């Protein structure tokens, strides 16, 4: 009888800190690849709603909550006159995000880039008060970070950051896939299977029910599975025919 290899559970900051640069590689993290594909249509929709909601505001502030290495934050750096704030609990990923943003900004013409971009280490489960630079935002995105919080923890953290009337875009591992797949990461140094103890499955109806408790409304839900077989890779047995990604557009009352 085969012996099942144990998975070592780590705090989320330690897990992602050790994962580092490989975090953005589609071969390693297939969900990042699927999230990027869905954002091609979902992020412009969010930005359009945000501009419409704050049409008189010339200098928008948008927060990327759980920004990681800045994978999605970089897509916001071509918003002229905007202020972008990236928040993440893992210092190693924040440093990578700063490096990538500096490089990306240097490639953009002066008149097509944001007014400023700032990254701060922030774990709301340890320090509830968010950095001042992230408060009073006109919009918020959070991509594939929701699973590391309970729903009350997540909404408690993001609700105070945005102004009334603002939109939020949140993406997550679809609960259909989450119930089938046990994720692990192989530690580069020890060869151990690792994952985080802070991992939660969120039914869509649960998100719909929790949002109003924090003054928010779910205005749209989008679900998706990979269409590109190459994106499925080694996870084919888990991904094929299964909804893997879910996106939410929310509005704060």
Structural class based on helices, strands and sheet pairing = alpha/beta
Number of helices: 8
Low-pLDDT parts are none
Widest β-sheet, arrangement of strands: 4-3-2-5-6-10-9
Radius of gyration: 18 Å
Basic shape: globular
First-last Cα distance:
56 Å
* Oligomeric state of the chains in view: single chain
Main sheet: strands, sense, barrel = 7 strands, mixed
Strand content range:
15-25%
Helix content: 25-40%
Mean pLDDT: 86
Topology as a string of helices (H) and strands (E): EHHEEHEEHEHEEHEHHE
Number of strands: 10
Describe this structure in words.
This protein is α/β, with parallel strands linked by helices and 253 residues long. The protein contains 8 helices and 10 strands. The protein has helices spanning 12-19, 30-53, 91-106, 151-158, 175-178, 204-210, 229-232, 236-239; strands at 7-10, 61-65, 83-88, 116-121, 137-143, 162-173, 185-186, 193-196, 216-224, 245-252. The strands form 2 sheets. A 7-stranded mixed β-sheet has the order 4-3-2-5-6-10-9, with helices on both faces. The protein has a 3-stranded mixed β-sheet with strand order 1-8-7. Strand 5 (137-143), helix 4 and strand 6 form a beta-alpha-beta unit. The chain is globular. The mean pLDDT is 86.
């Amino acid at each position: 009888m085969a012996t099942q290899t144990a998975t070592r559970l780590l705090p989320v900051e330690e897990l992602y800190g050790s994962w580092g640069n490989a975090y953005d590689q589609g071969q390693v993290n297939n969900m990042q690849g699927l999230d990027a594909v869905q954002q091609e249509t979902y992020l412009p929709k969010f930005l359009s709603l945000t501009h419409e909601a704050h049409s008189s505001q010339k200098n928008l502030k948008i927060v990327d909550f759980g920004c990681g290495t800045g994978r999605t934050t970089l897509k916001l750096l071509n918003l002229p006159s905007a202020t972008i704030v990236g928040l993440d609990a893992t210092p190693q990923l924040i440093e990578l995000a700063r490096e990538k943003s500096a490089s990306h900004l240097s490639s953009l013409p002066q008149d097509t880039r944001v007014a400023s971009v700032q990254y701060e280490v922030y774990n709301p489960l340890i320090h509830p008060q968010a950095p001042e630079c992230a408060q009073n935002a006109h919009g918020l995105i959070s991509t594939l970070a929701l699973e590391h919080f309970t729903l009350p923890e997540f909404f408690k953290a993001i609700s105070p950051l945005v102004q009334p009337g603002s939109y939020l875009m949140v993406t997550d591992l679809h609960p259909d896939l989450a119930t089938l797949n046990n994720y692990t990461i192989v530690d580069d140094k020890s060869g151990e299977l690792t994952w985080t103890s802070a991992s939660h499955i969120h039914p869509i109806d649960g998100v719909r029910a929790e949002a109003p408790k924090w003054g928010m409304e779910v205005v749209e839900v989008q679900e998706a599975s990979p269409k590109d077989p190459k994106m499925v890779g080694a996870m084919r047995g888990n991904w094929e025919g299964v909804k893997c990604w879910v996106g939410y557009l929310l509005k704060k009352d």
